[in-house]
Amino acid sequence: IINHGVPERVIKRMVEAHHLFFEQPEEEKAKYKAEGHQKLVVYGTSFAAKNQKVLEWRDFLMFIVAGAIDDETVQCWPQVIRDAGLEYVREVKKVAVNLLSALSESMGIPGILENTMGYERLLLNYYPPCPNPDMTFGVSGHSDVGLITVLLQDDVGGLQVLHNRRWVALQPISNAFVINVADALQVLSNGRFQSIEHRVVPNYHRARISIPLFCAPHNSTVIKPIPEL
């Protein structure tokens, strides 16, 4: 989507913060490593083979945002990302709420979807140049599990979606967001909105970044078709 209302300044600032974090020495990034995903901030790398069952060509930094988004929420975030990340999440969450509101109205049940939102996950992906891109994935094929994902990507490309049993490349558009319908939304909408399988292929020449915001239901939400549907 374009004309989404997120200022270009906010997007640019978030991208710059993304680069600042991943350009740091490994020992600095490793401060945010965790076994499993129990922390509110988790750094992971696919290049630590002992921790990976399936190797993918990427590093990532993930944030869990539950409830109100305030300064206290982000005190555990890396300082190089803190201010830009807080502003970015606030702005992009508005986009997600507006989209869910529009989808609710399209089903004739205003408010039903946006009121199920419980928490968000902000993910910063970094895909280094890959010497053998045909032998691995940045991220292997999958669908998202929440409600919707609002994805920002750079101009490198590599995102593919499965359409009619074929992988189709999704060409980047500057300052646009890619919106993924996720699994919980497919169930809640009784199949009216379909989640889609997608993957990322690495690039031989250039590094790639992406910044998805995953919007998920409350943990107490029962994931089943909305009765009115």
Automatic annotation (TrEMBL):
Pfam families: 2OG-FeII_Oxy, DIOX_N. Keywords: Iron, Metal-binding, Oxidoreductase. PROSITE patterns: FE2OG_OXY (PS51471). One of its GO terms (molecular function) is oxidoreductase activity. Residues 118-217 form the Fe2OG dioxygenase domain. Belongs to the iron/ascorbate-dependent oxidoreductase family. This is Fe2OG dioxygenase domain-containing protein. It comes from Taxus chinensis.
